[in-house]
Amino acid sequence: MTIYGYARISRPQQSIDRQIRNIKACNANAVIIQEAYTGTKMDRPKWIRLYSRVREGDTIIFDSVSRMSRNAEEGFAMYEELFNRQVCLIFLKEPHINTDTYRKALQGGIPTTGTDVDYILDGINNYLLALAKEQIRLAFEQAEKEVQDLHQRTAEGIETARLAGKQIGQKPGSKLTTKKSVQAKEIILKHSKTFSGNLNDIDCMKLAGISRNTFYKYKRELVQVY
């Protein structure tokens, strides 16, 4: 039996350290699987490999349900499938939907009596089971709603800035200057035959580590200046 920890961020520039620290605090021996990928999609490469790899008795620890999925329907379906495969799921922020809790709800019904009262007891047990399942579904729906709310707030913020006359994004015709572009242009100036170097275009773009289109774009910009 293997214990995994799955940590996910949406963009590479975000920090994943907090999730890993929380997972390790829960189980120091957890095998950490981490990736930068949106949670609204389930076809994340490392998640799919982990999902295919886990076997009965294995455990996956998540910092929160949103790390598993921000798509309510797909997330809930995958939860049930892993549950049926006897894989243990632990959500540090939402322990009430851990698979062990769900399993206890399935097994911990009120004992029947063999009398007519059982009709009532069966109804209560079915209600408790439905309630446990609904809690899991609601947790995934909340994770999906959080990302929807974020998108809406972002769109509203952009619209507010636009109405206030602020420039949104890069101005038309302006050139975006980055550290990488500056370094690439310095290499072109120094090594390209077009300027003071002795390398042809192919060798120069390899040295600069940029694509063909980017190379010729930078070269045109440099020709206009030098």
Automatic annotation (TrEMBL):
A GO term, aspect molecular function: DNA strand exchange activity
InterPro entries (UniProt xref): Resolv_N (IPR006119), Resolvase-like_N_sf (IPR036162), SSR_resolvase (IPR050639)
Gene3D superfamilies (alphabetical): Resolvase, N-terminal catalytic domain
Domain Resolvase/invertase-type recombinase catalytic: 2-165
Domain of life per record: Bacteria
CDD domains: SR_ResInv
Family in the record: Belongs to the site-specific recombinase resolvase family.
Protein name per Swiss-Prot or TrEMBL: Recombinase family protein
Record lineage: Bacteria, Bacillati, Bacillota, Clostridia, Lachnospirales
